[in-house]
Amino acid sequence: MTGTALRVVRAARAAFAAHGYGGASMRTIAADVGVTAMALYNYAPSKAALLQLVFDETMTEVYDSLGEAVADQESVVGEVHAILERSGEILQDDPDLLRFLIRVVLDRQQDELKDLELLAPPIVAFFDGLIERAVSRKELARRDGPRLATFVTMLFWGIIALAAADPASIRPAVETAKWAAAGRLG
C-alpha cells in the first residue's frame, strides 16, 4: 500500500471510529490526508466502499499480527491463548481499533452497508490455517473446524464487548477467555 493510500486508510478509520459511518465525512477524511475529496474516489468509489477498504486493510493488519503470535505454538490451546493475548495487546495499544470495530458492527444495519463483507480474506485464511493445523495434529476433527472458528470469534468479540464498556476490563477478559479455551479445548 502506498504512503497516500495508507494515510487514507488511517484517516478514514479514525473518522469512522470517532463518528460512525453516518458522521464520517469524505471531505473531512480528505482534508486529514491532505488531498481533495474527489481524490478519495481514486481509492474507493463510495463511502461504503471506503469503509470496506478500511475494514479489509485493518483485518489484514490484525490477522497478520495474530499469525505472528501463533507461529511458534505447538497446540491448538497454545494457538488460541496466543490469539487471545495478542488480541488484548492490540486492543490496548490501539483504542481506535476497538471503537472502529464496534462502529462497523452497529453501522452495518444501515442500508448502504448491507453488503459490507465482514469475512475479509485474511480472516478466512487465518481460521483455515488454525483449523488445518489442529486437524493435522489430531487435536480436532475436521467437521469441528467451523466450531473452533466460531468459538475463537466469540471469545474475541466477548473481549471487544467488555472492552467497549470498560477498557480496563481487557486484561481480565483475556484471562477469562483463555480459561474458557483451556477448559473447552484442553
Over all CA atoms, what is the radius of gyration? Answer: 18 Å
Number of strands: 0
Portion in helices: over 70%
Number of helices: 9
Shape: elongated
Q: Approximately how much beta-strand content do the residues carry?
A: under 5%
How many angstroms separate the termini?
40 Å
Largest sheet, if any? none
What is the structural class?
mainly alpha
Can you tell me the CATH topology?
Answer: Tetracycline Repressor, domain 2
Order of helices and strands: HHHHHHHHH
- On the 0 to 100 scale, the average pLDDT is 93
CATH architecture title: Orthogonal Bundle
- Oligomeric assembly: single chain
Describe, in plain words, how this protein is organized in 3D.
This protein is mainly α. The protein has a single domain (48-185), classed as Tetracycline Repressor, domain 2 (Orthogonal Bundle). The chain is built from nine helices and no strands. It has helices at 3-23, 26-33, 37-40, 47-70, 76-93, 95-107, 121-136, 145-165, 170-185.
Question: Would you spell out the secondary-structure blueprint of this structure?
Answer:
Layout: H1 3-23, H2 26-33, H3 37-40, H4 47-70, H5 76-93, H6 95-107, H7 121-136, H8 145-165, H9 170-185
Helix pairs in contact: 1-2, 1-4, 1-6, 4-5, 4-7, 5-6, 5-8, 5-9, 6-8, 7-8, 8-9
Note the main attributes of this structure:
single chain; 186 residues; mainly alpha; Tetracycline Repressor, domain 2; 9 helices; elongated
Question: Summarize this, please?
Answer:
The chain has helices spanning 3-23, 26-33, 37-40, 47-70, 76-93, 95-107, 121-136, 145-165, 170-185.
